[in-house]
Amino acid sequence: DGAFRRLVLGGRCAVITYNPWEAEVLKRFLHAHEEPCSEITAAIQQDRLARLFPLLASDKPYLVRQASQPFRENVSDASRFDGGRSGMLHVLEKVPRQAAAVVPPQLFSGDA
């Protein structure tokens, strides 16, 4: 999250993962920083939207998306550099948000 606070809008960040659990952490990060399309926004109640898309309950002015499909390292290249581990390169991009923030009722009620 810290890298994206410093990154300018339109900037890109490269992340290399070597294990499936690292890719899963990255997938969760992307989910926490995505927003729904307009069709989903129109079809689902606001409090549910905020639970499904955590970014909507935040004041962050940006979202994070994958700029391209992950690049898989060539196995022959991997054996030369890191003892045979195969990695994946993920390119992420910081872009402005389109959807307005949604604050679910339980976040500002006194009984939460």
Features:
alpha+beta; elongated; 112 residues; 20% strand; four-stranded antiparallel β-sheet; 6 helices
What can you tell me about this protein's structure?
By secondary structure, the protein is α+β, with helices and mostly antiparallel strands. Helices cover 38% and strands 20% of the residues. The chain has helices spanning 2-6, 20-32, 38-43, 46-52, 75-81, 105-108; strands at 12-17, 62-66, 71-72, 88-96. Strands 1, 2, 3 and 4 form a four-stranded antiparallel beta sheet that branches. The radius of gyration is 18 Å and the shape is elongated. Mean pLDDT is 83; it is low at 108-112.
Task: State the gist of this model.
This protein has 6 helices and 4 strands. By secondary structure, the chain is α+β, with helices and mostly antiparallel strands. The longest helix has 13 residues.
Order of helices and strands: HEHHHEEHEH
Helix proportion range: 25-40%
Radius of gyration, in Å, reads: 18 Å
Number of helices: 6
Strand content: 15-25%
What oligomeric state do the depicted chains represent?
single chain
What's the pLDDT, averaged over the residues?
83
Shape: elongated
Poorly predicted regions are 108-112
Distance between the termini: 26 Å
Describe the largest sheet.
Answer: 4 strands, antiparallel
Structural class: alpha+beta
Using DSSP, what is the number of strands?
Answer: 4
Q: Topology, pairings included?
A:
Blueprint: H1 2-6, E1 12-17, H2 20-32, H3 38-43, H4 46-52, E2 62-66, E3 71-72, H5 75-81, E4 88-96, H6 105-108
Antiparallel strand pairs: 1-4, 2-4, 3-4
